[in-house]
Prior knowledge:
173 residues, mainly alpha, Rossmann fold, 2 domains, three-stranded parallel sheet
Amino acid sequence: xxxxxxxxxxxxxxxxxxxxxxxxxxxxxxxxxxxxxxxxxxxxxxxxxxxxxxxxxxxxxxxxxxxxxxxxxxxxxxxxxxxxxxxxxxxxxxxxxxxxxxxxxxxxxxxxxxxxxxxxxxxxxxxxxxxxxxxxxxxxxxxxxxxxxxxxxxxxxxxxxxxxxxxxxxxxx
Length: 173
């Protein structure tokens, strides 16, 4: 049985263009254009550029190779990364994803289901008003670790310890 939910740098509610910020919005606009096909399917931009920019430390060559491995060949094998980027909803589009995010934001903000928020400092996506919104959720604990978006690359031991301690405190079914 599910005993709780832990999350970090997650989408906690629908966002607007302003929420994504001046630094991030041009990337999403490019990925939603025909140029997105070249950026992801040919250049592997998500792995080669976006990933390293959203980790505090410099990833080693062995680590980068592990991320590259499933996407080594250009083309359709990288399509899922492009689709993911194109499905990030802002300003109501794509509508189905926006509505789903709005529904789970309402549920998460009202349910007493146990939650652990692994907060990234300084963070990349879950910052500002979005961070304040999820901090208002009931029955939630919070731990802060160093990191940007892929904080598991910066603070794996701290995240693991926080998860283990939190799970140990959860009531059994």
